Prior knowledge:
- Among the domains are: about 5-105, no CATH class; about 110-175, no CATH class; about 310-385, no CATH class; about 405-485, no CATH class.
- Helix content is about 70%, strand content about 0%.
- It is built from 24 helices and 2 strands.
- It has helices at about 15-20, 25-35, 40-50, 65-70, 80-105, 110-120, 125-140, 145-165, 175-205, 215-225, 225-230, 230-245, 250-260, 270-285, 295-305, 320-330, 335-345, 355-365, 370-380, 385-405, 405-420, 430-450, 455-465, 470-485; strands at about 310, 315.
- A hairpin with a 2-residue loop joins strand 1 (about 310) and strand 2.
- Helix 22 packs antiparallel against helix 23 (about 455-465).
- The protein is flat.
Amino acid sequence: MDCLLLIFMYKTKLIKLLKSLDEKELIRFEQYLLSPFFNNSQKCIELYQYILTAYPNWQHESLQKEEVFKKIFPNKKPTNNSSLRELSSKVLRLLEDFLIMQELQYAPHHKDLLLLYSLEKRKNLQRFQKKYLQIQQKLTEKKTKDINDALQDYQLEEQLFNFEIANNLINPQQDRLWKVIQKFEHYTLLKKLELYSSLLNRQFLKGIQYDLEELEYLLKWVERKQLDKKYPNIALYYVTILMLKTKEERYFFRLKQLIYDYGHIFDKKELKTLLTIATNYSTVAINQNQEHFKIERFELYFYQLKQQLLHSGKYLHFMHLKNLCTIAIQAKQIEVAQNIVEEYKHQVAPEYVEDVYHFNKGMLEFYTGNYQEAIYFLSQVDYINVFYQLDTRLLLLRAYYELEETNALLDLAQTFKRMLKREKKLSKRHKESYHNFTLVLVKLYRIKALFSTKSLDKLKEEILQKKLINQAWLLEKWDELEAKQKI
């Protein structure tokens, strides 16, 4: 017997792709295979249905290739696995075709273009013209006018041009080719501006340098033709690029206003990208001690919440709710943060509702000086993910510090350091910053508890020089200890 048959099928390309499907998609794929229009191989159906018996345990022993072979080819000897491999490859190709069909359901414009192409091939003039007008009207009436719409507008115009050429319908009064070129140039300009915005954002955040000679040409073209005055989507990308290029905050405020005025014309993905760039800009400004950008960052994040850009499917992602509450507190929008915690409690996935609520309530109680209440809520937070776990412990450590709960603080500091050593999902940089915070906090507490200021100056150097989280809060606590020394 060929030893290759002892290999489990879960290592095959077919199983790896099947694992990415949800339960409804697995059922739909079975229906797809059962349709003689798409598949005429009974063996493909048998193989898939057998594999499906192992779901959701894709590593079940029944998926050992030898077992699968016996089931699908009962009258063959398993001297080699070429038959099974060929059948598996065939099911994989059918699965890929199924995924294409499924994606077409979410891309009606692609379906429209394929239909027009088919009508053109069949010389069905009347139906083509009627269908073209329907598609064109649908595109004109769309509320959004994003980059995908510009691409569709160009593709539709080109399809009409090809149709008129093929059927000798050229109208001398209408320069269709010129319209095709104009719409193509509009689309490519928008796409280039979008890509350059992302490139400059990377340069802005990471300091990577690029040759931007072509960008200078594009910007001059936009200015000369005053395209930013004619098209809001061009204006948004144009201002984004100027903001990132010059780092002047006046462009940030222009971009923010343009987003508020014209955000509704973009699809959610495109709008979210622009908002992320603007948010990144405000974060960098805050890190450069421009405190007034804290409220700006909060407003951008809150706008995303109201536009449901922070939702993943029907649920608000628990990390976004945490970040929003943190940013609101930093912007001194405590009342708004309290409303968010209560109003959006049940918009996160049900399994996270209570833990996310307890964390955010605990954080709010801490920042409003209610340390005992903060401990009450934070102590009820179970594991959500590593960052919730870390920040829960950080807030508890800080609350114990404020309340001078010596045993609780020192015990938690020890367990926290052990947890950091075991945690494999954290980068070395993150581990270092959390570990250093804990060390410095314990040193601060010992000075506070013993009323000793002997090593205070040395500790400030440590706070300023080491990589650690919550540096501003540690410096604030250091200042309090120094003030007591002067009394």
